[in-house]
Structure formats: C-alpha cells, structure tokens
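Consider the subject:
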Amino acid sequence: MTRPDGNGALSRFLIVLVGLASTDCGGKSPERPDGGGAAELRVDLGARDGIGTREATPGGFRLTVASGHGSGVYPAGSTVHVWAAVDPLAQIVTGWNGDAALLKEPKEWHTTLTMPGRDVSLSAQLEPRSLALQTIEGTWSTATKKTAYVHVPAGAKGVVFFLHGTGGSSKFITKAEAQSVALVAVKRGYGVISPEAEEVAAGDLDGNGKIRWSPQMKADNKDYANLEALLGELRAQGKLASTTPLYSLGMSNGGSMSVAIGAVAATPIAGSFPSLRFRAVVSFCASGAVALGGVTTTPTAWLMCAKDDNPEVSNAEAKQSHDALAARGIDTIYDEHPPSPLYDERFLRAGLDLATSKAVAKELRAAGAVDGAGFFVRPGNDLAAEVQAQPASYPSLTAVPPAGRLEVLGQISVMEAEHAMYADWASRAIEFFEKHP
C-alpha cells in the first residue's frame, strides 16, 4: 500500500490514518470538498525562519497578509513564507498586491520573502476558475477500455498532458495539487488531457507488482500507442488541430513518462509514433532515464522534491540529465522544491473546515512533529510510527473521514518536501511551456 503520488516514507502513515483497502501513487484518492477561510498565524518564531508571532518582538517588523496566511511579526533578514487563501479546485492566484516586489515567486500561491527592516503588507489576488472536464472512454490501441479527462477550449494555444504516478489513473487531474496546476494552464489558454496507463485497465503487464506507465523506448510500447491513438481520435473529432502544440507534465512515474515521450522524436522509434512531438515537458519528482538526457531534443524541466523519500527517484540523476541538455544548448530547468512550515489553515487545502484544520495543526505541534518555526522535524516513517504508537495524541486527525485523511497526508508530504505532487510552482511550470510555443 502506498500513499498518493509515490511510494515514499509516509506509506505507513497512510495505513495508520486511513485504513483503506487500496490507494495509489498518482493522486487516485477520494475527492475532497471545497474549503476556505483565513486566520492570523500564532506560532512563535523558533530556530528556523518560517512563521512569526503576533506579539511584539524586539527588532521585529509586522507582515500583514490579506486574502492569505503568514501575518505576524518577524526579525529583519528572516525568510518568511506566505500563502494565498486559495481553493485549489475553484480558484487561482493571479498575483499579489502591495509589497509584491519582495516576493521570490510573485505569481505563485505560496512563496517567500526576506523580511526588510520595515512593516510589509501583501494581498493575494484571487480569481474564480472552474475546470469543465469531459470524460471520454476508449480502447485506443488495445482491447482494454480506458478513461481520459479532457478540456480543450476553442482556439487553445496548446494542450498539456497530465500523467499520473504509479498506481494512479486519469483522476490525477481532479486532485487538489494537480488540478491547481491545470487551472493555471487553462487560464493561460491551454487545454488539458489526463489519460491513464494501459496497466490501469489491463493490470500488471510486466510483472513488477506496480500499475504504471511504461517509458521504455520500444516500437510496441502500448502506452505510446494509446497516446498516439487518443490524439488521433481527438483530432478526428475536431477537438484538437493537428498543428496544436503538445506539452506534458507528470508526477513520479508520470514525470518519467513525460521525459520519455518528449524524447521519442529523437529515437529510432520516432516513425512508429508520428504524433508524439512535444514542444516541452515537465517532470515533477522523477528523474527519468539518464540516457534520455543525452538524446532528447525537447526542452525539459525537472521540478524535484528536496527531501524525496522514494528510493526509485534520484535527484542527482535528474540534475545529470539537466546538465546534459544544458550542455547541448537545450532549454532546461532543474530545481528542488524545499520544505515549508505548517500553518493553522493548511488543511483547508485538504478540504477540512477551519476548526478541524486548526485542531490537527495543534496536535502535530503538541506532539513535537514540528519545530518552533513550523517545519516538520521527523521523517515520514518516524511520524507514522508515532501516530501508530500514540493515536490518542491525534484525536482530531483520526476523527477525519478516510478521504480527508488522505488529503491531509498529501499536504503533510508537500510540506515535508518528500515525494508528492505540489502546485507551488504552477505558474513556473506553465511559463516553461509558454517559452516554447
């Protein structure tokens, strides 16, 4: 049993918190309800930069965040996290007002600033945004019925594939972090397609015990053939023009698959899949095959997890592939998503109400799971063991219904910077595509 979007250290945490018969690695968790709300943070400033205090601090300066979280008093020179109070399933952040020039990533829902020697005011710009996904079914290149979620508006300037991780499905795009990225893509004028691997329908074809995409460079690769056939069907139906630029992003195994399909055009099997021609691809939390770094001619970004706990992922190999592309003059990004602190409202993003989100955050602090600045101080495996040994320390968390617990787990994984899909760099990912029209 594994947690959403990967086979990482928090898998046992999932068993303890959820007790479900099965989960997946690509976000195939139950749908969350919408959530919202805001309140000022009240965590004392600890040894690490992160969350401030409401009370007066000698030498400190006040940060006020409207339509968001992170308000408090911070010493000058400290690194401060701020978050927009955005519903990841129904809103996007279009920017920040006020002292936005101080923000490291002024287009993202979560970013940081270095506190200056003065008070600071920020306000998140929120815009309602829906994603009308059409569910389509087909066998495409095989005899097994598969599902894809599609949204391609008229005049789309490109279409982005969203590829799930191990154990996932086409529902990947309906989950909070992935859908948040999809909403940004649609805002920027792109269509989105979320297909699923052949093994989702046909079972474990290669006998490795995992349901996932096959990124192998073979002319008889069923996954490549399915994507080829799906594109052909959408074009035949007039939903997609033959000239519409294609892009792909994926999480974990889906990230490896994105790197692979981006490389198809530069391999001997290119003639078998003439539709698989991508302008750019992004891999979240997956290194992909190192050999492809020396082969692909497709601009490729690796947005990794700084503390990735999946043993099949190598940040070093991802960096090696990035360096190989850069040496050949191909546009590429390599970066590692860092840990971020816990704040009271974090689990609104998981669909909890404000009171429950605060209660769960309080339990995590009381149990010593985070330090004074809000950062998690123990790996997921250690936290899982503690929850199992001391369930009475987490009464609010264990009272959350199973679907909500899965979403809470996912948010903890993102904050830990372990193996999990994240939307913190949604605009950055889509802007990488925009560089390659």
Residues 134-338+421-434 form a domain with the Rossmann fold fold (CATH 3.40.50.1820).
